[in-house]
């Protein structure tokens, strides 16, 4: 994935059959339209989109909307390592790539379990 100077980068992670970190990057000027398009997919009472809680037809609907957004996507995968080792490797690689390119804001995942474990540390 190629980040561009000033990009806003959103990051999420998954621990299904390895440790996956997925980043989407968008030019700041495109972020508002992308966020509006995704918010338009929220169902009544729904606060956020999350594949884990969606059925297959809804996942297809979300993906088809995402495919027309002005974003770039990258995936970092670490397999055969415990999560506590895989997470800093994958997030560190992503952050390094974003920093080298001059990407702007990065929205990193902040899962409560990881925050407790990493409290006080410098690890991503």
From TrEMBL:
Annotated protein name in UniProt: Uncharacterized protein
Source species, domain of life: Bacteria
Lineage of origin: Bacteria, Bacillati, Actinomycetota, Actinomycetes, Micrococcales
UniProt-annotated stretches for the region Disordered: 100-124
Listed Basic residues bias regions: 111-124
């Amino acid at each position: 994935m190629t980040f561009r100077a000033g990009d806003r980068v959103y990051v999420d992670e998954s621990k299904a059959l390895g440790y996956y970190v997925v980043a989407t990057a968008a030019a700041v000027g495109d972020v508002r339209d992308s966020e509006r398009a995704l918010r338009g997919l929220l169902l009544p009472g729904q606060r956020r989109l999350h594949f884990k809680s969606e059925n297959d037809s809804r996942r297809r609907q979300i993906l088809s909307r995402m495919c027309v957004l002005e974003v770039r996507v990258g995936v970092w995968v670490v397999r055969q390592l415990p999560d506590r080792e895989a997470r800093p490797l994958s997030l560190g690689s992503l952050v390094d790539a974003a920093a080298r390119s001059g990407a702007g804001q990065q929205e990193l995942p902040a899962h409560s379990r990881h925050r407790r474990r990493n409290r006080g540390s410098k690890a991503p």
